Amino acid sequence: MLNRIVKPSISGVPKAVKCFSTTPQNNFKVAVAGASGGIGQPLSLLLKQNPLVTELSLYDVVHTPGVAADLSHIETPAKVKGYVGAESICDAFKGCDVVVIPAGVPRKPGMTRDDLFNTNASIVRDIAKACVEACPKAMLAIISNPVNSTVPIASEIFKKAGKYDPKRIFGVTTLDVVRANTFIAEAKCLDPLTVKVPVIGGHAGVTIMPLISQASPKVSFSESELKALTVRIQDAGTEVVKAKAGAGSATLSMAYAGARFAIALLRGLKGEANVIECAFVKSDVTEAPYFATPLLLGKGGIEKNLGLGTLSAFEQQLLKAGIPELIASIKKGEQFVNK
Ligand SMILES: NC(=O)c1ccc[n+]([C@@H]2O[C@H](COP(=O)([O-])OP(=O)(O)OC[C@H]3O[C@@H](n4cnc5c(N)ncnc54)[C@H](O)[C@@H]3O)[C@@H](O)[C@H]2O)c1
Ligand SMILES: O=C(O)C[C@H](O)C(=O)O
């Protein structure tokens, strides 16, 4: 397939300066919705650097022409285009393989993620409606909080339109995994790149359930250390919110985690074997109708839900403690669309 590097249209400068071939399997269009924000900008930068991305569509209600012009000067193949305002949303999403959604407001100190519901629920609903129209087969990677409710919201929008495929809608919980890997590596003096810890459940407080008993390499902690580590992973978002003192929540680590997850989706789409990431998805592994577990990703999105594995007694308690809040947040999202 032909691809073009397009330079900004400055008068007298030829537009297409080089043509080259890419295979269809390495030729993906990705959109970022909320691309001008604290997460959106560094996330877009990371995606621009990935060779699997050949078109990068930046959508926001402000500033995307500037962000797109800036990124378009980077010497990588992805063609970058900015779309600003609701009237351009379908053009932005048309033909997308993956839509990553960090649109919406972040927390300030003292707020819970659920306190963002009133603002972010309608933002995610409207973006999901545009996806139904413009790219119903795209993989959706939802970052906007509260993830435990925004994923059910997007899913209900797809159901209403008769376009729902539960294998293609994901709540991004990768940052919980990234944090668990980092904190455990720090505690055990390990290379963080070698540590892998599944984190299951949801993405808020007690619904975040790290499975340290399943860490690779195997690690052991006393009961009190295990408790302290688990609480730190559960409260890590709040740790950043407090440190930023009113200037928002995690953006750079989230951009890293969001790019890692979006690229995992592309690697799956491309047919790469053994691509595994945790994410919050429609699920029947517990009584909660959505639940994060490790997933095998493939050409159709979720190829296989890898489930809970064997939980320690401590982790069974975490599961018991987190499920009621998770079910309530899911219900709240579903009712928002179906009221
Ligand atoms: N899932 C996670 O692990 C995780 C981690 C960090 C942050 N978050 C969440 O991500 C969201 C974004 O955080 P941020 O720090 O980037 O916030 P931000 O305020 O810096 O950026 C949000 C962007 O969304 C845009 N936006 C607002 N309404 C929009 C709409 N209707 N359509 C498109 N874009 C719209 C804004 O213009 C802004 O550019 C928050 O809800 C935050 O809680 C989730
Ligand atoms: O904590 C937040 O509000 C943002 C995000 O969910 C996080 O975990 O960093």
TrEMBL record:
Which residue ranges run through the membrane?
none
Task: Summarize where NAD(+) binds, as residue positions.
Answer: G34, A35, S36, G37, G38, I39, G40, D60, N120, I143, S144, N145, M254
Superkingdom is Eukaryota
Q: Which UniProt keywords apply?
A: NAD, Oxidoreductase, Tricarboxylic acid cycle
Q: Name one GO cellular component term.
A: mitochondrion
* Binding residues for substrate: R107, R113, N145, R179
Instruction: Give residue ranges for domain Lactate/malate dehydrogenase N-terminal.
Output: 29-171
Coiled coil regions in record = none
Q: Does the keyword Oxidoreductase apply?
A: yes
Q: Which reaction does it catalyse?
A: (S)-malate + NAD(+) = oxaloacetate + NADH + H(+)
EC class name: oxidoreductase
Leader sequence residues: none
Family the entry assigns: Belongs to the LDH/MDH superfamily. MDH type 1 family.
Q: What is this protein called?
A: Malate dehydrogenase
The organism encoding this protein is: Photinus pyralis
